């Protein structure tokens, strides 16, 4: 998926998805990335990013492993009905046996403060399906179940709300970033990938355009300030007498 780097036409949409897997299958993240690839292949839009959002882990909530949902952000010349029909059919054909897939499709401008609040509520309390339907209906958002109990509608709507908040989750996919390994200048990271800003977790400084950033082997920008944000750590190389920038380790990213 590289089209989003050149194609910025069309209206903006979110596609929230949850509960497509079982203990033996690939996770929801894999299915969502595959769906996004198929949407681009069928000229349904340009994908700008896919985020993962952690929801509440609780004994009263059925989930496969971590209870997270995913949200695709795209521009498209299509409408909600067309996108919903394609995505719903894909979930029905690709979701694992025993899963309870849910789908939410929303034009970004229609996501309400109540839908955002619903997303954050889903991180802290048990929510019923009726509440999800009510919030989606009031905002005019598409919300549908595609198998099993349809329980995944809760996470699907929550993913859309959290993505719209601009301050939750990490990116499962972002243009070019997964191909970046080794050291890259800060300027090149911003110009050649989908990363739009840096945030240093242990310093008030930020790298200059020519400063090198060691990317590591697991780079996952987070969504902060409504932008794909690369978390950095500044370390002092005493032997060489200079500072060094590194993308943060996995355990820090997972706190977002």
Instruction: Give me the side-by-side strand order of the main sheet.
Output: 5-4-1-3-2-6
Count of helical regions: 7
CATH topology of the largest domain: Alpha-Beta Plaits
> Based on helices, strands and strand pairing, what is the structural class?
alpha+beta
CA radius of gyration is 19 Å
Low-confidence sequence ranges: none
User: What percent of the residues sit in helical stretches (DSSP H or I)?
Assistant: 25-40%
Report on the structure:
- Helix 3 packs across helix 5 (152-165) and helix 4 crosses helix 5 (152-165).
- It is built from seven helices and twelve strands.
- The chain has helices at residues 28-41, 80-94, 113-121, 129-139, 152-165, 186-192, 250-253; strands at 11-18, 46-54, 68-76, 102-107, 142-145, 170-173, 183-185, 197-200, 212-214, 222-224, 227-237, 242-247.
- The strands form two sheets. The chain has a six-stranded antiparallel β-sheet with strand order 5-4-1-3-2-6, with helices on both faces.
- The radius of gyration is 19 Å and the shape is globular.
- The chain folds into two domains: 3-171, Alpha-Beta Plaits; 177-253, no CATH class.
- By secondary structure, the chain is α+β, with helices and mostly antiparallel strands.
- The longest helix has 15 residues, at 80-94.
- Helices cover 29% and strands 27% of the residues.
- It starts with 10 loop residues before the first strand and ends with a helix.
């Amino acid at each position: 998926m590289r089209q989003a780097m050149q194609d910025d036409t069309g209206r903006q949409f979110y596609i929230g998805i949850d509960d497509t897997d079982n203990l033996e299958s690939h996770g929801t993240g894999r299915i969502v990335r595959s769906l996004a690839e198929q949407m681009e292949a069928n000229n349904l839009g340009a994908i700008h990013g896919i985020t993962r959002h952690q929801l509440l882990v609780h004994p009263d909530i059925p989930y496969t492993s971590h209870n997270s949902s995913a949200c695709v952000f795209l521009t498209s010349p299509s409408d909600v009905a067309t996108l919903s029909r394609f995505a719903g059919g894909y979930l029905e054909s690709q979701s694992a046996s025993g899963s309870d897939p849910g789908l939410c499709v929303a034009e970004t401008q229609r996501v309400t403060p109540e839908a955002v609040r619903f997303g954050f509520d889903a991180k802290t309390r048990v929510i019923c399906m009726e509440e999800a339907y009510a919030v989606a209906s009031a905002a005019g958002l598409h919300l549908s179940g595609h198998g099993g109990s349809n329980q995944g509608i809760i996470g699907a709507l929550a993913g859309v709300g959290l993505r719209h908040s601009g301050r939750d989750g990490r990116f499962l996919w972002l243009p070019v970033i997964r191909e970046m390994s080794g050291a890259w200048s800060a300027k090149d990271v911003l110009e050649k990938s989908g990363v739009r800003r840096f945030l240093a977790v242990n310093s008030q400084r930020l790298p200059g355009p020519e400063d090198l950033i060691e990317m590591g082997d697991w780079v996952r920008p987070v969504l902060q300030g409504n932008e794909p944000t690369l978390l950095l750590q500044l370390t002092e190389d005493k032997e060489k007498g200079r500072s060094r920038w590194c993308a943060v380790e996995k355990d820090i990213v997972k706190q977002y």
